[in-house]
């Protein structure tokens, strides 16, 4: 009976580690896609050091889960106590790190409000100054998502015009409609846009556009995160049970 239980735990351990292996492969793929994607995310990631770091953290986490899933599968099938102990300790560290990140994200979620982004935009945005990380990132977001400001073009009324600008309109160039939503895309009518002709401007705020674009993916990511944490927890339990059951 004991041998049957040990055999069952071994194959369950292999199954859970196979899912961790697949999860690591998915994270690895997402991290690579965010960095090399040619539709605008690459510009945003490269322009923002925080996003740049985050993309490589996702890559590192994916690679680590990929490796640990592989080691867990090998440790379970071969009944190797060293591999199982190594797997348990690293999964425990990853589990605690992910749990801490989720708690911090919940605590600081109020920093992601519409009012917060509007205040930061009016305070730090420098229009077409691509040497400024904040402004360059915002310009890339507005071009990629065909949106303007947080709430709309009126957000830029409080942003000072450039000293050498002859135009008296507050709408930045990044809010002008383009034939292709990238920095290389041709303007539909740049002069009319900057002169205040609304039909050549992107009038919808980025907060609503991005929220609508990612609402489904946010819930999917949350469900995926809960699933990954549950799988890791069960994998640790089975790893320790299998470790203690191996003679």
Automatic annotation (TrEMBL):
The chain crosses the membrane at residues 12-36, 56-77, 84-108, 217-243. One of its GO terms (cellular component) is plasma membrane. Signal peptide: none annotated. Pfam families: Tetraspanin. Keywords: Glycoprotein, Membrane, Transmembrane, Transmembrane helix. It is found in: Membrane. Its main location: membrane. It is a multi-pass membrane protein. Coiled coil: none annotated. PROSITE patterns: TM4_1. The keyword Transport does not apply. It comes from the Eukaryota. PANTHER family: TETRASPANIN, TETRASPANIN-18. Belongs to the tetraspanin (TM4SF) family. This is Tetraspanin.
């Amino acid at each position: 009976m004991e041998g049957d239980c040990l055999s069952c735990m071994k194959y369950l351990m292999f199954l859970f580690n196979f899912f961790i292996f697949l999860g690591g492969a998915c994270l690895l793929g997402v991290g690579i896609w965010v960095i090399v994607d040619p539709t605008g995310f690459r510009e945003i990631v490269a322009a923002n050091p925080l996003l740049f770091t985050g993309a490589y953290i996702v890559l590192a986490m994916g690679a680590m889960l990929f490796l640990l899933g592989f080691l867990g599968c090998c440790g379970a099938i071969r009944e190797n106590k060293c591999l199982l102990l190594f797997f348990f300790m690293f999964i425990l560290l990853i589990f605690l790190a992910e749990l801490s990140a989720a708690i911090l994200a919940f605590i600081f979620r109020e920093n992601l409000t519409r009012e917060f982004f509007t205040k930061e935009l009016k305070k730090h945005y420098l229009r077409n100054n691509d040497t400024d990380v904040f402004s360059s990132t915002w310009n890339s977001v507005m071009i990629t998502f065909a949106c303007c400001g947080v709430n709309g073009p009126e957000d830029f009324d409080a942003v000072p015009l450039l000293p050498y600008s002859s135009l008296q309109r507050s709408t930045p160039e990044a809010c002008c409609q383009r034939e292709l939503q990238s920095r290389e895309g041709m303007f539909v009518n740049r002069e009319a846009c900057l002169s205040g002709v609304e039909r050549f401007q992107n009038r919808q705020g980025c907060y609503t556009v991005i929220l609508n674009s990612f609402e489904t993916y946010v819930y999917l990511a949350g469900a995926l995160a809960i699933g990954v944490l549950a799988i890791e927890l069960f994998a640790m339990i089975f790893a320790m049970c299998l470790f203690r059951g191996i003679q």
